[in-house]
Prior knowledge:
Blueprint: H1 3-14, E1 17-19, E2 28-31, E3 35-42, E4 44-47, E5 50-58, H2 59-67, E6 71-76, E7 82-86, H3 87-94, E8 104-111, E9 116-120, E10 123-126, E11 134-137, E12 140-143, H4 150-160, H5 171-188
Parallel strand pairs: 3-6
Antiparallel strand pairs: 1-2, 2-3, 4-5, 5-8, 6-7, 8-9, 9-10, 11-12
Helix pairs in contact: 2-3
Amino acid sequence: MNGKNEFLHKLKEKSSVERAYNLGKPSAYKIDDLEYIYLRYSRKYAHGEQLEYWYGVEKEFLMKLTEIDGFVVFIAENPNNNFKIPAKYLLELLKSEPTANDDNWKIHIFETRTNFEFRISKEKIDLSDYLNLYQIDNGEIQFHQKQILVKEISKLSVEKNLDVDFDNLNIQDQIRILRKNQLDIMKKIGL
């Protein structure tokens, strides 16, 4: 089983995962009816003292994904090395970059001794903030989100009045509610 299939298998054990046929790509999925992800997988290639991962991302599809606040999840061979990047942010990084003849951006992620880097032209972008937001531990996938503007999120949580009786919900329903509210809050603050 390659890293992409293993990642999907583990994700399906913890979440509702459906192919997003409405988006027209076989690697697009809807997770828990909350978010869309576009999976990209690469095996590793030796590049001097570094490891390199190569991906293709269709320009037109990335633009479609930004309209629904989706994410691109890059899997670097091993499902434990995954990068969940907001499509809007990725498009912002790539919009001035040329595409290949097939209208795809060819994306290279480099693994150094200390981090993973996304390289655009001569700029290096550290991907640490996006690494393993879907973290697989001991065969189980766990969801992690960046700690972002805690003050803003707290303020928006109060405004949104997240008064939910968690004692009467099973763990999966609790996770879904928290993730949906977190995504709503992140959208409001522009992430």
